[in-house]
Amino acid sequence: MATLKVPVHVPSPSEDAEQLRKAFEEQAMTMNCFRYSLAGWGTNEQLIIDILAHRNAAQRNSIRKVYAEAYGEDLLKCLEKELTSDFERAVLLFTLDPAERDAHLANEATKKFTSSNWILMEIACSRSSHELLNVKKAYHARYKKSLEEDVAHHTTGEYRKLLVPLVSAFRYEGEEVNMTLAKSEAKILHDKISDKHYTDEEVIRIVSTRSKAQLNATLNHYNTSFGNAINKDLKADPSDEFLKLLRAVIKCLTTPEQYFEKVLRQAINKLGSDEWALTRVVTTRAEVDMVRIKEAYQRRNSIPLEQAIAKDTSGDYEKFLLALIGAGDA
Amino acid sequence: MATLKVPVHVPSPSEDAEQLRKAFEEQAMTMNCFRYSLAGWGTNEQLIIDILAHRNAAQRNSIRKVYAEAYGEDLLKCLEKELTSDFERAVLLFTLDPAERDAHLANEATKKFTSSNWILMEIACSRSSHELLNVKKAYHARYKKSLEEDVAHHTTGEYRKLLVPLVSAFRYEGEEVNMTLAKSEAKILHDKISDKHYTDEEVIRIVSTRSKAQLNATLNHYNTSFGNAINKDLKADPSDEFLKLLRAVIKCLTTPEQYFEKVLRQAINKLGSDEWALTRVVTTRAEVDMVRIKEAYQRRNSIPLEQAIAKDTSGDYEKFLLALIGAGDA
């Protein structure tokens, strides 16, 4: 369930586009007239928040389209010019279409200075098959190559062995489960893990090709038959980075809200906090399952996510994130 | 270019469905009245050929839909009941929607008694990214699991290592080529092949993720820089089955008409000929690139494909195949 709040009466895309244009122009004037004063800034940014943090993906796409037609400029480019820092990144990411946003995040994750196996894993494992497919299509369109080839090219060793099949997957999404298979594959997983063969091709095959429903059945069998949840057995060496990632794969595939809760918790608790992670999780999940992530957060941290974010962030960035996670009215 | 010939004035799907129904009913009558005579059979089967071998995929789909609505029966099931042997398989395969047909062929290829790494490779490498994607969707819908999981489950060792990435691929389809990359990856391929590391993950990565245009550029560089076409270097041990498959991958990705020419040549030249291969290539390529395959066949064998097929097959099966490869009028 989404936390995004859309007003009952939504202005037309052209009204929204016009308001955004005004916000930019006012700001430009303000900047000319009172270059060294910050007066006026707040108003404009509030308007941007009021509009963009309260429109769903289809509505934001329409606004972008209408904006480009009316003013001959890309809304995203204008936002980029007008905004700065964490607020800028949050607004830009959220305004993007979900598939384009994921393609952008995945592309960053294959680049040298922003490389991240975790983000690639997160996109591969927490999105539905069709969402992931749309990410791949957006990747083709934007970068003129495939997500898989960039992931394969920019990873090595055991990480490549795991990540390439994960991003390549087009899992079956139905609820049908084969119990005989679940039993036999639970045993395979247990045998390999007992022998510490964590990168065995059978382990990779099972986690990267089976449907989420089938995998769930397999892991339930694992738990019942061998006495431990698989992620407990995967903690043999708590400092092993590959094992950490593999546990996250399991979590992301079976209980994504718990996975995202943990990312948020670590981002917020970090000294100085990790705004990139915070922004990523809030912008990508606000329209998907943020209600459940918030429940998981409250349960685990005994403090509402809104409060934790408010304590940790400030200004327009804070306002924007809080709007996305459903604090206040639309 | 397709060899399939569709008449200028195509009857409506309901007229076609009605004609097919009549063909079945006449046949049923014939079978009752003259059980031990073959009189009458030809006519009905000729009608089936006249219709189904001269309608494109969209038209055949419409006929199936209208047929099911009008008679409450699946056209494919009726064809299965009425026809036999190679003719039956050819008509059934061709009548299927291309994506459903490939899903069916791929599923057979993962089954114990019809298992074939070659057919999996052929489907993965000769179809466009979007065609392959539609095969995967059809596979989900029909078998309630994913193509990748069945391929991964039913293959082992080096074959799994190659085939799973190939069927998982969603290659970029644009013409853009990165020449620096082509050079560096040509060198990687040459190094690995010189060391006989044919199943090296870099080799698999390059052939399974790069766009066909990019791969082509890489292989051209290979040829220019190292003096041999890659497939020549991959012939070090001519009896090695994995190397054979790897050469076929390269051929299928870069010159599919040559690949299919060879499959046809071997199917026809085999003692007793290989009807399954013949049927597969003719039914899957008639609407795609059979014109070029026929050219390649004539060039390589100095005999037109029509003549070779006519010499090697007979009866309705022969008539159906010849109709599909464009012999005679629509």
From TrEMBL, chains A, B:
GO molecular function, one term: phosphatidylserine binding
Keyword Lipoprotein among record annotations: no
Chain positions recorded as Ca(2+) binding sites: 24, 40, 42, 82, 268, 270, 272, 310, 312-313, 318
Keywords: Annexin, Calcium, Calcium/phospholipid-binding, Metal-binding, Repeat
Keyword set includes Calcium: yes
Annotated Gene Ontology cellular component terms: cytoplasm; plasma membrane
PROSITE patterns, per the entry: ANNEXIN_1, ANNEXIN_2
GO terms (BP aspect): response to cold; response to heat; response to salt stress; response to water deprivation
Protein name: Annexin
SUPFAM superfamilies assigned: Annexin (SSF47874)
Organism: Gossypium trilobum
UniProt free text on domains: A pair of annexin repeats may form one binding site for calcium and phospholipid.
Pfam families linked to this entry: Annexin
Family: Belongs to the annexin family.
Gene3D superfamilies: Annexin (1.10.220.10)
SMART domains listed in its UniProt record: ANX
InterPro entries membership: Annexin, Annexin_repeat, Annexin_repeat_CS, Annexin_sf, AnnexinD_plant
Domain of life per record: Eukaryota
